[in-house]
Amino acid sequence: MTTPRFWREIEQRYRGIGVQCENCSRVYFPPREICPHCRRKSFGRMKEKELSGKGKILTYTKVHEPHPEYKMLTPYIMAIIEMEENVRLTGHLVDIDYEDVKPGMEVEVTMRRLGEESPKGIIYYGYKLVPVK
C-alpha cells in the first residue's frame, strides 16, 4: 500500500469523520466499531459524525528533533486539543510562535500539505492545528 492511497482511503484524515454511539452518545475519533463504554450494546450502533474542527489546547510542547523521515523545520509545536465533541486530538500547531501559545487557546483543524512521496513527487495532505483569530 502506498502512502497516497493510504491517505486517500481514510476519509477521517480529510474530513474529520468520527463516530457517535447511539446508545450513550459518546463521540470517538478516529472511528471505532464498538463503544468502549457500552461494549456489546453498541455493536452496529456507531454512526458517522463529522466533527466541528474546533477545540482548545490542553497541553503543548516544542519538538527540537523530528523523526528522520519527517522533513519539517525545527523547532515546531505539537499540541493536544480537546474538541467541542469531547474528543482529544494530537496535531502540529502552525502559524504561531511557541511563546504565544497558551493552554485554553482556541484552535481549528485545517488541511495542509504533510509531505511528498518518492521521486514522483506525489503530495499528500492531512490536518494541522491553527489558532482561531
Question: Mind explaining what this structure looks like?
Answer:
The radius of gyration is 17 Å and the shape is globular. The N and C termini lie far apart (39 Å). The protein contains two helices and eight strands, in the order ααββββββββ. It is mainly beta. It has two domains: 14-50; 52-133, OB fold (Dihydrolipoamide Acetyltransferase, E2P) (Beta Barrel), CATH 2.40.50. The strands form two sheets. A five-stranded antiparallel sheet has the order 6-5-4-7-8. Strands 2-1-3 form a three-stranded antiparallel sheet. The mean pLDDT is 86.
Throw out a few tags for this protein.
133 residues; mainly beta; OB fold (Dihydrolipoamide Acetyltransferase, E2P); 2 domains; five-stranded antiparallel sheet; three-stranded antiparallel sheet
Rg:
17 Å
Strand count: 8
Q: Quaternary arrangement of the chains shown?
A: single chain
Low-confidence segments: none
How would you sum up the global shape?
Answer: globular
What is the N-to-C succession of helices and strands? HHEEEEEEEE
Question: How are the SSEs placed, and which strands pair?
Answer:
Blueprint: H1 3-9, H2 12-15, E1 17-21, E2 27-28, E3 46-50, E4 54-63, E5 76-83, E6 88-93, E7 106-117, E8 122-131
Antiparallel strand pairs: 1-2, 1-3, 4-5, 4-7, 5-6, 7-8
In short:
The chain is 8% helix and 44% strand.
